[in-house]
Amino acid sequence: MPMGKEELMKRLEERIRNCRKCPLWELRTNPVPGAGSYDAEVMFVGEAPGYWEDQKGLPFVGRAGKVLDELLAGIGLRREEVYITNIVKCRPPNNRDPTEEEIRACSPYLDMQIDIIRPRLIVPLGRHSMRYILAKFGFRVEPISRVHGKTFEARTLFGKVTIIPTYHPAAALYKPPVMEELKKDFARIGALMKRTR
Ligand code: URA
Ligand code: SF4
């Protein structure tokens, strides 16, 4: 019998916990593989763990996580029914941006998570995640200010997947207008999920 999602993800998480493919492993307290439902219809993909994520081994549990929770609640979604992860699974020092090398080393884990979960919708959070996801599915990368809230339809081996990029929730912490844009983009996400249910 083929392996179920649960077992595939547990094995993958174990690999991430033992990973030393890029220098970030040396500084991490805990790697952050991701969290949520393996049957999620929607996957949210952030950038990299921050201080609290590294402490707890869980994604989006700091201040940006509070914003994400608020946005999810706004469209009637609970964390337990979505899947949340990042392109890079270990915390970059001083929360600097992940490098191209780190993204290249780590992104195969994200690719595998997408293949296991087979979501119908992927929401890249922020410019790094947007760039990686759009390029992965063959779309032209444009500035986040231009692509946020737009719908991209991709074909995959497991069927159709919709991508709606949006801003990183942390950006809303110091730029209130970004929160308004995030809310609008999340309203689209909510509407699309109702339609496909
Ligand atoms: N920012 C991210 O991009 N990911 C997290 O998990 C937390 C903050
Ligand atoms: Fe491995 Fe990714 Fe952590 Fe680098 S960031 S050590 S590639 S899990």
Write a structural description.
The chain is an alpha/beta fold and 197 residues long. Helix content is 45%, strand content 13%. It has eight helices and six strands. A six-stranded mixed sheet has the order 1-3-2-4-6-5. The longest helix has 21 residues, at 176-196. The radius of gyration is 16 Å and the shape is globular. It starts with a helix and ends with a helix. The model has no long low-confidence stretch (mean pLDDT 96). The chain binds uracil and iron/sulfur cluster. Iron/sulfur cluster binds at residues 16, 19-22, 24-25, 31, 88-90, 102, 105-106.
**CATH architectural group:** 3-Layer(aba) Sandwich
What's the gyration radius in Å? 16 Å
Structural category: alpha/beta
Poorly predicted regions are: none
Query: What is the straight-line distance between the termini?
Result: 29 Å
* Element string (H = helix, E = strand): HEEHHEHEHHEEHH
Number of strands: 6
- What ligands does this structure carry? uracil, iron/sulfur cluster
CATH class, named Alpha Beta
